[in-house]
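Q: Could you fold this chain for me?
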Amino acid sequence: MGDGEAKTRTGRTEIRGNMTQSRTFKTTWGWVTVTASNKGVTAIDLSFSGRASESRSAGDDPAGAIVEEAMRQLRAYLDGARREFSLPVDWSAGSTFQRKVWRAITKIPYGRLRSYQWVALRVGGKQYARAVGMALGANPVPIVVPCHRIVAHDGSLGGFSCGLPLKRRLLKLEGTLDQLLS
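A: Sure. Below is the predicted structure, expressed as structure tokens.
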């Protein structure tokens, strides 16, 4: 493997009759794991730890092709060369309310912040702000479904399932960290 190529680990799993494929790959930020079904991306693990071994993707498997494209787009995003994702997402995980929240936040553009209350107003009403936070915490596809762009109504950082240091780093990448209260 040359210096520009990343080592990866591939795994195939069948969940409820739906074949999924996972790949762990190196980015400039560390190791990332992407999992996809034939319908779309099902999970992104941003723990940035772990090691991968060399392997190849499984032929014409649609899930494998989705994982390959997700890897390409995630690397470009983390390198600052991509602002949007054009990946299918498998929305089958989560409740109806969670899926509604996740779909709503995919409309928030790169470089913009929104509050939990802003999302709540779009999915049922202001009183759902706390439930929105819970749904965001359960988001299995961070970055592609950009829960890091949601902050508290008072301008403070709020939470992030992948940890606040990573949220700060993602917001800095998008040029929005300086918009928040110290």
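A (continued): The chain has two domains: 8-78, 96-177.
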